[in-house]
Structures
1.
Amino acid sequence: MHRILHVGLGPLGRIIVADLVERGLGRVVAAVDSAPDIAGKPLSTVVPKAGAGTLTVLPSLDAVTNWRDIDCALVTTSSDLAKCAPTLRDLLRRGVSIVSTCEELLFPWLRHDALAKELHDLAVKNKARLLGTGVNPGFLMDTLPVFATAVCKSVRSVHVWRIQDATTRRVPFQQKIGAGLDDQQFAAKIKDGSLRHVGLGESLHFISKYLGLGVTRWEESIEPVKAARDLTCALGPIPKGRSAGVRQVANGYAGDKKVITLEFQAAIGQDNPHDRVVIHGEPPLDLTLAGGVHGDIATSAITLNCIAPLLAAPPGLHTMATIPMGRFAPAHS
């Protein structure tokens, strides 16, 4: 069983810890969260499914003492790689391999080229490994379309849709897509960068790199999805006409030719949720996951399923295309 250091016990982190124990994939030997209402509490009170025990949530990595007992760290703290960087550096310097849900870490060379090189060098020097993953980015709009082309003789372009009903998603996700906001509030949050699906550009450049599509420029748009009727969600009521969610579209061009289109839409009460990948090539492919993939369940699953493949990879900064193929991991004895 994997011995895990878990960093970040927000809603997603708690789901991952509970699933780790329930699936029999490992045990948490240290847990860290700096939030005053979490640090110092028994892990079993923060995540009841973690089971009874004496493990206490620590306020920082400096408080961890059992480094030799740790096989891998799971970091579920921020979408922003710059904010995660101090934690990642500290772990890599100690030789600890990391699977993180940081969206920008899926393909960090897009926005953080120098930092990506630094983290890679640290990992190699200390014989550690680093991976950013998740359901999206991490699989549905990047890894899945790339791996689907294994049966293709040629690929001209890629079009991916992720259309989600966000009604059952966790509260931070509903906040991130702007559920319940009026036009002025929505525009203000776009301006300050707090309202967007993080990772669409990373997914686009992941596809371009691994399929050799040669994107030379790209663009991204964002707009609210308006509620067509009165709705309600975990954040409260959403009157008709207010934002029920967000729609983002990213296009990548090789010269003047559009070679990648990614369409992301997540809204409360979204009709016909689905995930779809269309490959224009030889042979052409059209894959649809009816109903769509539940983001919280899948993010936890892929994070845990990637531990073993990452640990089997050589030291360094990895992507989902450079580790052994991730798959469902059965329980370890």
2.
Amino acid sequence: MITGLDAAIVGHRRWALRRWFRSGAGRYYHRAGHPGVSSRVDQAFYALIDPALRPICRQLHAQGIGTTPSCEGHFHGHDYFRERWEELLLERDSILGDGLPVVDSESGESFLFRQPDHRIPWRTFNHFYRESMRHQATGYLGILVPSRRVLLQARLHTLRPRAGHLRVLADARRGRLLGGALFHVLVTPGDPDDLTAQWHRVAEWVGHALAGRHSAG
């Protein structure tokens, strides 16, 4: 049994400091807890990662570099969010009643989320839709480089892209909490084709940095 999970949308740069749980319908719930940083390599884990991010995460994990909870970004329409809203209401009823089965996204451990005072954070569908639309097109990946890999940290920082809809931000404070150097990769494209192109740029940046790891990290 588990309680205290939240369905609210949180800022991308806070994702690594939340513990995430996935329902059978694919909705994510979260709560404060152990930081969500992964270097897992099993197929079940990679199946949960968005396709555009999968090869980047594989590259990083193969070199012992952790990644945080992530999302490639999406361009869903009104009907998609209406379906998600209906699922959210059904899940709320389960949480208030017999409980909602959820799975820890990092460990794969199963829980039953049951809480008699659970509330969803939006009053109406329109509130939910507007907030979801503001966040959905932003893609995000957090990269955590171990503290001992000082030269690789410097290489990632030096080579990071600085143009257009792609930003890479270093976060020293949250990095210290997680035990390394944290880089926030944020993609805010205008359409799906641009989204794909931007994640290709991220893959190239990561590949170039890792290729020089013997001399630079």
3.
Amino acid sequence: MHEIGQELKQAREEQGLTLEALSSSTLIAKKYLKALEEGDFDQFPGEVYLKGALRKYATEVGLDPEPLLTRYTGTEAQAENQDTEQQKPVEKKKPMPEAVVKNYNTVRRINKGRLAMFVLVLALLFVGVRAILISADSPASTEPPSLEDNELPGDQTPDDQPAPDGEPADEEEPEDVEEQEPEMRIEAENIQGGERFTVYNADSLVVDLSFSDRCWVRAHTDGSQEFEHTFSAGDERSLRAENEIRFRFGAVTVVTLTVNGETIDLPQTGSTYTVEIVLAEED
């Protein structure tokens, strides 16, 4: 630090400045300027004030203040480190009390014992699980089950045994097949002035009539006259016979005729028309 003060003083004298003149131009008290030249930096009330004064002094006498500040900072830090190292007491390691050493060794032995016990338990568990898995994977006994008296393999009963060579096997009786009734059928043939319909495979005759317009009708069932009537549009009539039904229509084109649920096609032209419906048996 003294070297920095000598450089400041030498530069001031080279400029021909006195401390009084320098104090007037920098507005720094003379005692602080003198303290800078003598390196007595402890005279300053604070670090900030010291550096500001050093900067103004150097600038005023034509010196670059930055190198001086850097040198001052480095010198100050080095001095503080030396003081700290001198003041720092050397700590001596205290020997571990004997009781603590004994307790530490005891704890280590206990922990080792617990670890060994834990490893032993894991080994036993592993062996047990492995034995269970092996027993589960082993194949089941292959000994054939004993057969009770009169018991045949494959759940066969004595009736299921094959017949000896040369003996005919019992033939199964055929199941009764339900006979289906033949379907009803109707055959048509032309007659004088009309048409005859022969009905096969039916027990009786049921005829339904419906009308879309006015129509005169004469009807006979099993040889007897049933009615003679003029029907209007929308009228309906049903007849039943054991053997035969005979109609005489005045306007056949407006009549719808159904025999045992099956509609009969009637001619769509002409007027008066005869229709005979006869029940017959198959030959």
4.
Amino acid sequence: MNRLRYIMIGGFLGAGKTTTIARMARHYTDQGLKVGIVTNDQAHGLVDTMSLRAQGFDVGEVTGACFCCKFNDLTDVVAQLSAEQRPDVILAEPVGSCTDLAATVLEPLRKFYAAEIEAAPLTVLLKPEHGLKILGDRSDMGFSPKAAYIFLKQLEEADLVVVNKVDKLTSDELLRITQLIEQRFPGKKVIPLSARSGAGFAAFLAEVGRTIDPRTDTPAMDYDIYAAGEAELGWLNCTVGFRSPSPKDSRINVDRFLVDFLERLATACLAVDAEPAHLKVLATAGDSTAIVNWVCSDVPPEISVASNAEVDEIDLTVNARVALDPELLAELVRKVSAETAKAWSLVADVTEMQSFRPGRPMPTHRMPLGRGAEPTA
């Protein structure tokens, strides 16, 4: 029996992992392969899962912590997908603030599940909005060196670094990012990609599809810095329902409403100097779905999925990862929800609010190699 191919697409929050995985899933499906997807989050109510399921994909979730800390949950979800769908390929999307995946996920898979699972090269998407700043050691990168440590460690452990969103980069910017990666991590394989437009997709798939030799080395990891970097981020998942007091007299343009909501929330975050790692909002209204993202203080919110619908009521699922105290982040979401409702003559109801800082990573297994076998804090 052929082994299941496990492809993990990592990268910092807002790097475009979900868009990339959706394009990969469509490609493999078109090739006649069965595909299962596993998403991952620190909390429940994940926009990525809803988005992928809305596109017709089979999606399992691991929630409550990263893959590394929920390794048994990850293998259980993979087994469940295998029993129900018998996929040829599993596409796995780890939490965007997670690193040390080679030692805590891939090596345990190779040790305990080698007969059933073949792990593809560890792919990490580079988020250019923060990548240029962090790799260039700029003072305006928006995060402390501890949070930047996670970003850099993700790149260090990658078998393949994919510079995503090249459709938004000039040729000089792409060249600069590539040079910075080479200076920091000599010999690292780098591929340019636009997951949205498909530019570079064939070359990317060729690299992901190759068989690699077993690792002999994983990066050394300071878990004190890693934990402190994650804890800088306020984490918030919630749902907000908006209803019109007089449905017959009011129609809501879903796309304009969604952009307005996130622009107001972005303005509120910037007013308190809070840098976004990724702020994603999904709107559902009947059969209509729309998604808007905000990934960096330097760029405006952008709609990634449009619905072109007008409705009487609308529900938002908000996933926010921002360098801000989570209680203040929750307060901003409630305030903006009320302001948006008033501006649109609606009534807002905020429900299922989860706001917190991620706890210290506690991997189920850690099997470091080479330099990574050095003692960790």
